[in-house]
Amino acid sequence: MSTRESDRITSAQQTLDILYEMSQLLNTQLDKETLATCVGMIESGVNPEALAAVIQELRRESSVLSAQPATGSHR
């Protein structure tokens, strides 16, 4: 691996670490892997506001599903 590539990777990791710290301060509840995926999607052209709306909707749906009683009988 070249020094230039190594510097780029180090810089990207430092940037992700800073973004993760900010996300923790903002209580986004995103883990580092999810945050990195979101950053990659935004860098690829995904609208950040649309991405945030999708994440919020998925969380709402997950809450609803978690609150529903399990189906099936226990005899």
Instruction: Count up the helices.
Output: 3
How far is the first residue's CA from the last residue's CA?
61 Å
What is the mean predicted local confidence, pLDDT? Answer: 92
**Most strands sheet:** none
Q: What is the 3D form?
A: elongated
Beta fraction: under 5%
Poorly predicted residue ranges: none
SSE class? mainly alpha
H and E order:
HHH
The gyration radius over C-alpha positions equals 18 Å
Number of domains: 1
Helix content: over 70%
The total of beta strands comes to 0
Main location: cytoplasm
Subcellular location: Cytoplasm, Cytoskeleton, Microtubule organizing center
Keywords: Cytoplasm, Cytoskeleton
InterPro entries: MZT1
Walkthrough of the structure:
The protein has 75 residues and is mainly alpha-helical. The chain has one domain. The protein has 3 helices and no strands. The protein has helices spanning 3-25, 32-43, 48-67. The N and C termini lie far apart (61 Å). The mean pLDDT is 92.
